[in-house]
Amino acid sequence: MHLKNQSSKKPPLTARRSFVNTANSVTIIRLMLAPVLGWSITHGHWWLATFTMVAAITSDVLDGKLARNQGTASTFGGLFDHATDAIFVSTGAWALAAVGLINPWLWPVIGIAFLQYTLDSNSLRGHQLRTSKLGKYNGIGYYALVSTAIGYQTLLSTSLLGPAALPILQELGGASHNALRAVAWLLLASTLISMVDRLRHVIVHRLNAH
User: Fold this and answer.
1) Is residue 9 assigned to a domain?
2) 138: region left, alpha or beta (phi > 0 left; psi from -120 to 50 alpha)
3) How far, in Å, CA of 210 to CA of 150, rounded?
4) Residue 1 counted as domain residue
5) Which candidate among 102, 137, 154, 174 keeps its CA 20 to 30 Å from the CA of 70?
6) 89 and 140 in contact (C-beta within 8 Å)?
7) How high is the pLDDT of residue 173?
8) How far is CA 157 from each of CA 36, 78, 121, 146, 152, rounded to the nearest angstrom?
9) CA–CA separation, 133 vs 189, rounded Å?
10) Total domains in the fold of the chain
11) Is 111 part of a structural domain of the chain?
12) Which residue range is the domain that position 115 belongs to?
């Protein structure tokens, strides 16, 4: 994001702003929803998990818009938003792994990737996070994976479709579970590739600096 003049309609991104603002409050709500998501998945409360995902995605859309529109965007706010996303999706991935729907390696790798992402961007010293296309797509993929798994399990657990539809869904269950597992493995691979690529850029940058 480019810094803009104070007279611009969109306020500049600053390193220091008050933590207490509407945008960060919305982000805090998403952070508080993470344990709710984990509990609802591991206990089979799929409707609660669905509502939790909808609320989290809504908050993810709103907090950035609120920060820009209200002039409260900051590097710390961006870091807090990304950290909350990492915690939320890794919690969802952990819970899905706990019930046997995906591999158990994706959720810790998401956390490690975010840590590398933060340190590489010098965000802890007030620098803006540096994103990459692959990292952005991975972030979308994490949400899509967790949302799809929850949505499918919700359909299986509901009685609104009628008894005639349930056998069809159950027949598709094996294929759907295999597809979820495959996507989770692909996301794990793409996350590792993104981490290696980011590390390569850091090494090249430091070598060129000397």
Assistant:
1) no
2) alpha
3) 50
4) no
5) 137
6) no
7) 63
8) 19, 37, 43, 16, 9
9) 15
10) 1
11) yes
12) 22-209
